[in-house]
């Protein structure tokens, strides 16, 4: 049954290839025709969805004058899997709800995973690739090594999807949906996730070291974000992801003990009460202990809300990169705007920023691949 289905699709694609080549030649001499665009869209969706070996994906057409016409790059869409794997988004959502019900710390892990993926090479799931002989992957980079959580859960969900729709749902889309759905599961904002990303085939350890650091000051942090097209407000808004999650005490030890090489001193920009409380949580000889990024509320580190920004206004930001958001008039204004206890302003801004981040450097159409296993490229 499967071989007949693939043969039928192959014939359909070959017919489309011929038709698109013809339309491409015409488009060199007259306006773009709806038929050509429609066939291009169907062709690329079908070819990428069914992952047929050697499928004839055409992206250019030869013009009658010897030149070439390049078809537009396919865009992400909300209904990308409606025909190729209609159960996908529901399957992912249900899986995530069960996970988060058992462990409400997972949303922070999944959001961080998407950050670390999209900020390096774009949203292509390159962060999931394991190292191979001769190439150390992003997972070996300093910001990622032994610090990304939930990777095995991505693998489990991908395996389930492969049973339902083999070779259809990309790992890059999976990361984006797991982040959004897990955040929703703890009462966070719902936002649109467009689909159709393809998985990257390159992952380099050194490139991961370009990720924003918890030790950055305002100008360095803004440079990291602006290099990817984010403005200062979006930087502050996305930093609000630190309203959930936990971190190792070693990342703030320098702010709590012997600050600027002064024995017994803590960072003077910290609220003294907060600093003393954090010292109790993070003794100088226990850098392996975890602490909640946002200690407020009944469920510290597990409640996504605007309290993160209110804590910043009280000089209670854990990382230097948190505290620095109020160190300039521009940054402080953004923090004040997001600090409303109603959460509405923050939720709306965060959703828009996540939508933008989710489209960074995406590959679509015939670019990249759809991995069968998220940790390794197809064919390896």
Automatic annotation (TrEMBL):
<comment type="similarity">
    <text>Belongs to the peroxidase family. Ascorbate peroxidase subfamily.</text>
</comment>
<dbReference type="GO" id="GO:0006950">
    <property type="term" value="P:response to stress"/>
</dbReference>
<keyword id="KW-0408">Iron</keyword>
<feature type="active site" description="Proton acceptor">
    <location>
        <position position="116"/>
    </location>
</feature>
<dbReference type="Pfam" id="PF00141">
    <property type="entry name" value="peroxidase"/>
</dbReference>
<dbReference type="InterPro" id="IPR019793">
    <property type="entry name" value="Peroxidases_heam-ligand_BS"/>
</dbReference>
<feature type="binding site">
    <location>
        <position position="305"/>
    </location>
    <ligand>
        <name>Ca(2+) 2</name>
    </ligand>
</feature>
<feature type="binding site">
    <location>
        <position position="138"/>
    </location>
    <ligand>
        <name>Ca(2+) 1</name>
    </ligand>
</feature>
<feature type="binding site">
    <location>
        <position position="117"/>
    </location>
    <ligand>
        <name>Ca(2+) 1</name>
    </ligand>
</feature>
<feature type="binding site" description="axial binding residue">
    <location>
        <position position="242"/>
    </location>
    <ligand>
        <name>heme b</name>
    </ligand>
</feature>
<comment type="function">
    <text>Removal of H(2)O(2), oxidation of toxic reductants, biosynthesis and degradation of lignin, suberization, auxin catabolism, response to environmental stresses such as wounding, pathogen attack and oxidative stress.</text>
</comment>
<keyword id="KW-0349">Heme</keyword>
<feature type="disulfide bond">
    <location>
        <begin position="118"/>
        <end position="123"/>
    </location>
</feature>
<feature type="disulfide bond">
    <location>
        <begin position="249"/>
        <end position="282"/>
    </location>
</feature>
<feature type="binding site">
    <location>
        <position position="126"/>
    </location>
    <ligand>
        <name>Ca(2+) 1</name>
    </ligand>
</feature>
<dbReference type="InterPro" id="IPR000823">
    <property type="entry name" value="Peroxidase_pln"/>
</dbReference>
<feature type="binding site">
    <location>
        <position position="122"/>
    </location>
    <ligand>
        <name>Ca(2+) 1</name>
    </ligand>
</feature>
<dbReference type="GO" id="GO:0004601">
    <property type="term" value="F:peroxidase activity"/>
</dbReference>
<keyword id="KW-0106">Calcium</keyword>
<feature type="domain" description="Plant heme peroxidase family profile">
    <location>
        <begin position="75"/>
        <end position="378"/>
    </location>
</feature>
<feature type="binding site">
    <location>
        <position position="124"/>
    </location>
    <ligand>
        <name>Ca(2+) 1</name>
    </ligand>
</feature>
<dbReference type="InterPro" id="IPR010255">
    <property type="entry name" value="Haem_peroxidase_sf"/>
</dbReference>
<dbReference type="GO" id="GO:0020037">
    <property type="term" value="F:heme binding"/>
</dbReference>
<feature type="disulfide bond">
    <location>
        <begin position="85"/>
        <end position="165"/>
    </location>
</feature>
<dbReference type="InterPro" id="IPR002016">
    <property type="entry name" value="Haem_peroxidase"/>
</dbReference>
<feature type="binding site">
    <location>
        <position position="212"/>
    </location>
    <ligand>
        <name>substrate</name>
    </ligand>
</feature>
<feature type="binding site">
    <location>
        <position position="294"/>
    </location>
    <ligand>
        <name>Ca(2+) 2</name>
    </ligand>
</feature>
<keyword id="KW-0560">Oxidoreductase</keyword>
<keyword id="KW-0964">Secreted</keyword>
<dbReference type="GO" id="GO:0005576">
    <property type="term" value="C:extracellular region"/>
</dbReference>
<keyword id="KW-1015">Disulfide bond</keyword>
<dbReference type="GO" id="GO:0006979">
    <property type="term" value="P:response to oxidative stress"/>
</dbReference>
<dbReference type="GO" id="GO:0042744">
    <property type="term" value="P:hydrogen peroxide catabolic process"/>
</dbReference>
<dbReference type="GO" id="GO:0140825">
    <property type="term" value="F:lactoperoxidase activity"/>
</dbReference>
<dbReference type="InterPro" id="IPR033905">
    <property type="entry name" value="Secretory_peroxidase"/>
</dbReference>
<keyword id="KW-0376">Hydrogen peroxide</keyword>
<dbReference type="GO" id="GO:0009505">
    <property type="term" value="C:plant-type cell wall"/>
</dbReference>
<dbReference type="GO" id="GO:0046872">
    <property type="term" value="F:metal ion binding"/>
</dbReference>
<feature type="disulfide bond">
    <location>
        <begin position="171"/>
        <end position="374"/>
    </location>
</feature>
<keyword id="KW-0479">Metal-binding</keyword>
<protein>
    <recommendedName>
        <fullName>Peroxidase</fullName>
        <ecNumber>1.11.1.7</ecNumber>
    </recommendedName>
</protein>
<comment type="similarity">
    <text>Belongs to the peroxidase family. Classical plant (class III) peroxidase subfamily.</text>
</comment>
């Amino acid at each position: 049954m499967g071989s007949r289905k693939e043969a039928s699709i192959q014939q359909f694609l070959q017919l489309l290839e011929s038709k698109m080549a013809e339309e491409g030649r015409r488009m060199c001499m007259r306006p773009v025709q709806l038929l050509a665009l429609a066939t291009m869209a169907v062709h690329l969706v079908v070819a990428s969805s069914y992952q047929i070996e050697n499928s004839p994906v055409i992206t250019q057409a030869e013009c009658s004058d010897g030149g070439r016409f390049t078809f537009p790059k396919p865009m992400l869409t909300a209904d990308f899997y409606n025909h190729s794997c209609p159960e996908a988004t529901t399957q992912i959502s249900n899986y995530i709800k069960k996970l988060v019900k058992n462990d409400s710390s997972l949303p922070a892990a999944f959001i961080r995973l998407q950050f670390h993926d999209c900020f390096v090479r774009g949203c292509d799931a390159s962060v999931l690739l394991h190292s191979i002989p001769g190439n150390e992957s992003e997972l070996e980079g300093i910001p990622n090594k032994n610090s990304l959580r939930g990777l095995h859960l991505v693998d489990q969900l991908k395996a389930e999807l492969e049973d339902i729709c083999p070779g259809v749902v990309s790992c890059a889309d999976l990361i984006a949906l797991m982040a959004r759905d897990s955040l929703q599961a703890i009462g966070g904002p719902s936002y649109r996730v467009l689909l159709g990303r393809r998985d990257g085939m390159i992952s380099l350890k050194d490139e991961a070291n370009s990720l924003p650091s918890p030790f950055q000051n305002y100008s360095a942090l803004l440079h990291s974000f602006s290099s990817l097209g984010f403005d200062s407000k979006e930087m502050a808004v996305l930093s609000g992801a630190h309203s959930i999650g936990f971190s190792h005490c070693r990342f703030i030890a320098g702010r709590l003990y012997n600050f600027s090489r002064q024995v017994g001193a803590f960072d003077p920009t910290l609220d003294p009460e907060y600093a003393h409380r954090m010292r109790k949580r993070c003794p100088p000889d226990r850098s392996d202990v975890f602490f909640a990024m946002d200690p407020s509320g009944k469920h510290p580190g597990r409640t996504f809300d605007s309290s993160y920004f209110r804590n910043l206004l009280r000089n209670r930001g854990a990382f230097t990169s948190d505290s620095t958001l109020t160190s300039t008039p521009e940054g402080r204004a953004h923090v004040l705007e997001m600090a409303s206890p109603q959460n509405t302003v923050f939720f709306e801004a965060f959703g828009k920023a996540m939508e933008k981040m989710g489209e960074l450097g995406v590959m679509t159409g015939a670019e990249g691949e759809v991995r069968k296993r998220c940790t390794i490229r197809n064919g390896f």
